[in-house]
Amino acid sequence: MKRSSGKEKSSAEKSKIAAEAPEELDHEPCPLCHQKTLVLSESESEIPFFGKVFLYSMTCTACKYHKADVEAAEQHEPARYTFEISSEDDMKVRVVKSSEATVKIPHITTITPGPAAQGYVTNIEGILNRVKAQIETLRDTAEDDEDKTKAKNLLKKLIRIKWGQEKQKLIIEDPTGNSAIISDKAQKSKL
Ligand SMILES: [Zn+2]
Q1: How far apart are CA 179 and CA 60, in angstroms?
Q2: N or C: which end of the chain has fewer CB within 10 A?
Q3: Which residues of 121-148 are buried (b: 16+ CB within 10 A; e: fewer)?
């Protein structure tokens, strides 16, 4: 079953997510196409320095509707995490991102919460890969050259960030407290 819309995943991300066998329910009614083709899945994962989280997902095998989310077992305070990406090693830093989180990557993009937003456990590389996929779509669908060039430049910038050649701030704000950047380098503040 596909757990996330991200096409690229590091092996670290895969192994972590595969750690617990999910419980599945299939043939459920799909909220979008209304066929009984929805697969519901729930699993748990233990996140160091954050605690246990529940991972939920719904995937329709007919219309491809997909929704995933993550919720901490324990209630956490609404929080803002700020992290400066400055090395290739930072790619491995674990990130818990719920569908209620706002992810700010200044001068590049902002991932906003909402009904279409997904929640997942990943790492910084996983976040950057999702952003990369979005910008690639922009590049491929842009009508004018200026937008195409802008997208191409952002993709180059992302590569430099991933290689640790360019510093980049990453901010995650979540009023539900279900999100976190798990690192000593991350600054946590009240939201
Ligand atoms: Zn469907």
Answers
A1: 26
A2: N
A3: bbbbbbbbbbbbeebbebbeeeeeeeee
3-state secondary structure of 110: strand
Cα distance between residue 67 and residue 146, in whole Å: 33
| Domain ranges, ordered by start, for the chain | 11-190
Show the tokens assigned to 50: 């954050």
Give residue 26 CA to ligand 1 midpoint distance, Å: 12
- Give the pLDDT mean for 15-33: 79
pLDDT tens digits, 137-172: 999 999 999 999 999 999 999 999 999 999 999 999
Q: For residue 55, report the distance from its CA to the centre of ligand 1, in Å.
A: 20
pTM of the model: 0.84
- Ligand 1 centre to CA of 20 (Å) is 26
Please name the fold of domain 11-190: Jelly Rolls (2.60.120)
Residues with CB under 5 A from ligand 1 (ion): 30, 32-33, 60, 62-63, 65
